[in-house]
Amino acid sequence: MKSTRIRFVVGILAGLLLTSFVVSRSVNAAETQGYGRFGHMVHFFADYLDLTDAQQAQVKQILSKDEPTLQPLVQQMRQNRQLMRQVIESASFDESKARALAAQQTQTVTELAVQKARMESDLYQVLSADQKTKLDKFLDRHEQRWAQHAGSNQ
């Protein structure tokens, strides 16, 4: 039971670190491509789903609208990660501070997930029925690969 909890917490922390890393790594390259932070991903899906120029314009509009909401959340995650690192590196471990930072990070991740889901829902509505089917199949394959990867780590 305790081992399962530890794996769960480590998994969540790894996910948070991975999310922060991916977001921060994509900022510079993506912003130069006209889609803000999401440029690389948008270009992939624009090609994969064969988005029309009008659809690409709608995608840019949605991303531009949602960027101001997402940016402070990403910044908060970065700050929390830096503060947690200070707790880890301090001479004596302050469990109450670590718990408070973890709780704050959980709230930030939750808000970020909700905002991301809202944005992805808006983006999904831009697609035609055929594009939605193609995207659904792609996402199903992606989820299966992640499930297989997660299953091999147990």
What keywords describe this structure?
mainly alpha, 5 helices, elongated
State the end-to-end distance: 14 Å
Task: Tell me the radius of gyration.
Answer: 18 Å
Total helical elements: 5
> What profile does the largest beta sheet have?
none
H and E order: HHHHH
According to DSSP, the number of beta strands is 0
Q: Which blocks of ≥5 consecutive residues have pLDDT under 50?
A: 16-33
Shape: elongated
Strand content range: under 5%
The average pLDDT value, as a whole number, equals 80
Helix content: over 70%
Which secondary-structure class do the elements indicate? mainly alpha
Give structural notes.
The protein is mainly alpha-helical. Helices cover 87% and strands 0% of the residues. It has five helices and no strands. The chain has helices spanning 2-31, 39-49, 53-89, 95-126, 129-152. α3 (53-89) runs antiparallel to α4.
Concise overview:
This protein has 154 residues and is mainly alpha-helical.
How is the secondary structure organized here?
Blueprint (H helix, E strand, L loop, with lengths): L1 H30 L7 H11 L3 H37 L5 H32 L2 H24 L2
